[in-house]
Amino acid sequence: MIGDHGLRYGAQKDEDVGKFEDYNPMLMISVPKFLRQNDQLMKNMRKNARRHTSNFDVYATLVDIAKIGKQNAYQNWDYHDFRSCEEMEVDEWYCLCYTWKDVKLDSDRVQRAGRTVIDTVNRFLESENISSICAKLEFTKVIHCRLQIMISCEHFSQHCNISSSIYFRL
């Protein structure tokens, strides 16, 4: 049984727990009795249940079960302990190994980042020879800024192998 997402409406959706539910759909698997007798399959299923896996892993697992059936060829299911969202092709937006922290808007770093965004867009418009048909952007102020930071993925019982890059979202 696979859930699509958590709550779509209400105050909880905008909180961290709501975002976690939205990006981490529920998944329950009931292994058929005839497959439970396969020790290697059950060992890998239990081990991978506590690892950082993606919907791509689940799909590949179900395809393998359909192809292999009762056979004892489940050795390749032992996923690496440390896989980043990037390695699993999970978009950064849906990666659960990051958290967001509000940043003071009056900090020099935030103001420089805001100006850099505006300057970059203006330079792009010029380089594409379309600045004559587009209004030149001017920096006024940053109205909201959050810092994206990597967190320890303790809920996966391992740590995500993600670079410690810091991103601003303006």
Task: Compile the SSE list and pairings.
Elements (H helix, E strand, L loop, with lengths): L15 H8 L9 H4 L2 H10 L6 H14 L29 E5 L5 H20 L18 E5 L16 E3 L1
Antiparallel strand pairs: 1-2, 2-3
InterPro entries: DUF229 (IPR004245)
GO cellular component, one term: extracellular space
Care to describe what's here?
This protein is mainly alpha-helical and 170 residues long. It has two domains: 31-102 and 145-157, no CATH class; 108-142, no CATH class. It is built from five helices and three strands, in the order H-H-H-H-E-H-E-E. The chain has helices at 16-23, 33-36, 39-48, 55-68, 108-127; strands spanning 98-102, 146-150, 167-169. A three-stranded antiparallel beta sheet has the order 1-2-3, with no helix packed on it. The longest helix has 20 residues, at 108-127. The two termini are 38 Å apart. Residues 154-170 have low confidence and may be disordered. InterPro entries: DUF229 (IPR004245).
The helicity comes to: 25-40%
Radius of gyration from CA coordinates: 22 Å
How much is the average pLDDT?
76
Q: Kindly name the structural category.
A: mainly alpha
Pfam families: DUF229 (PF02995)
InterPro entries: DUF229
Give a nutshell description of this structure.
This protein is mainly α. The chain has helices at 16-23, 33-36, 39-48, 55-68, 108-127, and strands spanning 98-102, 146-150, 167-169.
